[in-house]
Amino acid sequence: MVIVASGAFKHEEIVEKEKSIFLKLSHGSTTSSENVDADAPLAQFAVAFKGSSWKDPDSTTLMAMEAMLGSYTKHTKSSGVGEFKISQLVQKLEVDKMAESMMPFNIKYKDTGLFGIYATAK
């Protein structure tokens, strides 16, 4: 897990805030189904990898990959493109009804970046 903050924060303030939130989580051998909030209708998650900085030669490649992945929102399926969407990932999400939404992200910083997808699913 990575905690990121930007702005006029003191490192110690962020650490203490996160401790107050995450120390409530179990340290035992619970299963993921035991940690699920039954009142929450959707799981929201992101899968990310180290991306590229603005100056990195791979920056343009990752921008193209982000566009090629496409995005999906269950509520826009009335657009008529259905199973003929650009990426196989988006096609699979639509046809198999595997998620409510999915969008790629490509965040760039001065020296590094994050590349991945954010999704919501039941």
Descriptive report:
It is a single chain. The protein is an alpha+beta fold and 122 residues long. 25% of the residues lie in helices and 22% in strands. The protein contains 3 helices and 4 strands, in the order αβαβαββ. The chain has helices at 11-22, 59-69, 88-95; strands at residues 43-50, 72-73, 101-108, 113-121. Strands 1-4-3-2 form a 4-stranded antiparallel beta sheet. The model has no long low-confidence stretch (mean pLDDT 81).
What is the secondary structure topology, with strand pairs?
Elements: H1 11-22, E1 43-50, H2 59-69, E2 72-73, H3 88-95, E3 101-108, E4 113-121
Antiparallel strand pairs: 1-4, 2-3, 3-4
The coarse silhouette is flat
Number of separate helices:
3
Q: Give the strand order, joined by hyphens, for the main sheet.
A: 1-4-3-2
Share of helical residues: 25-40%
The count of DSSP E runs of length 2 or more, i.e. the number of strands, is: 4
Q: What does the radius of gyration come to?
A: 18 Å
The oligomeric state of the chains shown is single chain
Largest sheet: 4 strands, antiparallel
User: H/E element string?
Assistant: HEHEHEE
Task: Bin the strand percentage.
Answer: 15-25%
- Uncertain stretches: none
Distance between the termini: 22 Å
Mean pLDDT: 81
Structural class: alpha+beta
Keywords: Hydrolase, Metal-binding, Metalloprotease, Mitochondrion, Protease, Zinc
Pfam family, one: Peptidase_M16_C
GO molecular function: metal ion binding; metallopeptidase activity
InterPro entries: Metalloenz_LuxS/M16 (IPR011249), MPP/UQCRC_Complex (IPR050361), Peptidase_M16_C (IPR007863)
